Amino acid sequence: MDTSEQTTCGKGLAENSVLPAQLGKVIAAMAENLETHMRALDLTDQDSSREFDAYKKLVEELKQSALQLHVTANQMAGYRDLPMSRHDEKAMGHPRVREVFERFLNEKQELLSLLERTTERDNQILDAMRMHS
Length: 133
Description:
Helix content is 77%, strand content 0%. It is an all-alpha fold. Helix 2 (18-38) packs antiparallel against helix 3 (46-78). The chain folds into two domains: 1-85; 86-133. It has helices spanning 9-16, 18-38, 46-78, 89-92, 95-131.
């Protein structure tokens, strides 16, 4: 097999870098959404002031999370050219390896389901916003 076509762990990392990259974009957009919402709050109202403080803290944390996901995605992509290394086949065949990979796949499926459910709800909110503008 041509080594340029050979599957390696480095290529797997690079291919999977799209997940933290996209999650980072979603988290950054969430932060921007909250930050924009903050501008609509009437800070003379005590409840609005408390909401503003909560959103401010969350925006800072979300921006940090998005940045870290971006950095991690870039690092993963940068490992594309790691050479094929020797693996212990017995260790790779251990049931725990399969269980962990199954959990990873299940979590991705849960994420997909969550995104489908919340996108439906968010589209309804967007439609209501469009009607009021």
